[in-house]
């Protein structure tokens, strides 16, 4: 991933993770693996875990500790009502931005 992609991703990763959690509860490694499967190969696990701490502190997710067959319990994150509202606002903002960027792009051709 190039530097420009990395910088753009920093501003949207929170919304992307919340969108993942809107589909189903997940733990940090699952989220990281899904992102990598989608082509975000340079995302470090630490980045996702730090983001999960932030969204937990913002009270956008509920957290449940679930026993793990391998090691300590896993923290499973699920999107709560406040997180759903935040995600809806993210999608509205995303729609606005992509619409304007597309207009700029078309005018440049």
Compute the separation of the termini in Å: 26 Å
Sheet with most strands: 3 strands, antiparallel
- Rg from Cα: 16 Å
Strand numbers in spatial order across the main sheet? 1-3-2
CATH architectural name = Orthogonal Bundle
Count of helical stretches: 4
Order of helices and strands: HEHHEEH
How many distinct domains?
1
% residues in beta strands:
5-15%
> How many extended strands?
3
Question: From the helix content, strand content and strand pairing, which structural class follows?
Answer: alpha+beta
Mean pLDDT: 92
CATH fold topology: Arc Repressor Mutant, subunit A
CATH H-level superfamily: Winged helix-like DNA-binding domain superfamily/Winged helix DNA-binding domain
Which word captures the global form?
globular
Query: Helicity level, as a percent range?
Result: 55-70%
Q: Please identify the top-level CATH class.
A: Mainly Alpha
Low-confidence stretches: none
């Amino acid at each position: 991933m190039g530097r420009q992609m990395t910088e753009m991703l920093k501003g949207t990763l929170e919304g992307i993770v919340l969108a993942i959690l809107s589909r189903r509860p997940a733990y940090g490694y699952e989220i990281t693996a899904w992102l990598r499967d989608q082509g975000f190969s340079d995302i470090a696990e630490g980045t996702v875990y730090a983001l999960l701490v932030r969204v937990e502190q913002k009270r956008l997710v509920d957290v449940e500790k679930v026993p793990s067959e391998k090691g300590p319990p896993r923290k499973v994150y699920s999107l709560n009502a406040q997180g759903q509202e935040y995600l809806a606002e993210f999608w509205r903002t995303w729609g606005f931005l992509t619409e304007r960027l597309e207009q700029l792009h078309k005018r440049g051709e």
